[in-house]
């Protein structure tokens, strides 16, 4: 492999030094894979040349955004291609055209000046990129009302494994193959949930005009996204945030079914462990909280809310500063949970993103508690309750990898029985790719193989993610 040849042929940078390779060997997960090269392209031509170089040198290519993914989706051997220079933003009335490397924080600031916002809002805030959000089908608290990335994705422009530019939707051969495979899908095998980042989202495609949706949650395995058109919304005139307190998680989960009928813009769950990190007073009997936010008919909705809930209204905020402060506390739940669990030892985050139909939310929360008790591990839970999506962190000093796999198999079996998904927003990555077949069954999994083969017949793009190839090109190791 002659790295100099690649460096001379592109305008961007090629890195092969130890420090850079180590930086890109990790993301926000607990995994580590050292790449062979890191390329930071400046132009689309650079990306195409990198793909041709990779093909010639039998190296894989994995796109990377902010590296905030939680399951190792952006880690691989071979070449990591960092899209940070594709950072153009163009704002229109109801949509925005953005480069894949645009950081969400920068986009938010610009949109706000235009009185607009993007629906999906991962709690990681400003640090993730549009490419990464598409790659994982990211969502967030406001996805309850405004949908996940897949629901807001109007068009994708990408470079395929063969180095060709492809726009979706379009009447191209690849788009037609997507529709053909989508028609063979048994939609009953898909989870019956409002958000899903497991496998390929063939269920979201009914015709050519929806073919761009197949790229959402595809984790860089079908192409390298260079830009996208995403729907945007008018900033609401007013928001109100209500904090509800509950004596039991079951009571809170049951209330969620009533609360969603009022169309809140967010409905989030915070457990007892996470509550300890919020600087506010709570009555001692309160075991968990629900955050309920409305951005329309606020006064009317709050009075309706007080009539239908079994919990207590603890706080109500309508000023921007307090709302932002309370959201910061909720968005730091992952940080709090890791801080809390540090005295134990965190375990690989495999069962951390399950999503079930809302009527099964209480069962999901109780299942997590039962699992923790059964295996003697500590547990922290929080998440997007209105979507039935709960993040779970487990910790134990002395549990081994084998136990985690046993826990994952048992837990996922129950989640799938509830018609849920093993991942609502973080994706499959290294942590869950081996469970994708279990989620969908053999027939749908075979369609996934066919889809991957249509886009990437030589398994060049982010191999071993979503579908397991016969031969692995990369080795991975756990940091902990
Ligand atoms: C503290 C914290 C809180 C979080 N909260 C949320 C949350 O509330 N909701 C949520 O959904 N997620 C959340 N996440 C997960 C993560 O932030 C999102 O998945 C995010 O969208 C990843 O974006 P990224 O730019 O960092 O992508 P990366 O991690 O760099 O990549 C993610 C995947 O996208 C692929 N990808 C990246 N760029 C491209 C491209 N140009 N073309 C094709 N594929 C590409 C990568 O190959 C990889 O498979 C959280 C993470 C952290 C650390």
UniProtKB/TrEMBL annotation:
SUPFAM superfamilies listed in its UniProt record: FAD-binding/transporter-associated domain-like, FAD-linked oxidases, C-terminal domain
Biological process, per Gene Ontology: lactate catabolic process
Cofactor names: FAD
UniProt keyword annotations, A-Z: FAD, Flavoprotein, Oxidoreductase, Transit peptide
InterPro entries to which the protein is assigned, alphabetical: FAD-bd_oxidored_4_C, FAD-bd_PCMH, FAD-bd_PCMH-like_sf, FAD-bd_PCMH_sub2, FAD-linked_Oxase-like_C, Oxid_FAD_bind_N, Vanillyl_alc_oxidase_C-sub2
EC number: 1.1.2.4
GO MF terms, alphabetically ordered: D-lactate dehydrogenase (cytochrome) activity; D-lactate dehydrogenase (NAD+) activity; FAD binding
Family assignment from sequence similarity: Belongs to the FAD-binding oxidoreductase/transferase type 4 family.
Full protein name: D-lactate dehydrogenase (cytochrome)
UniProt source species: Candidatus Nitrosotenuis uzonensis
Upper classification of the organism: Archaea, Nitrososphaerota, Candidatus Nitrosotenuis
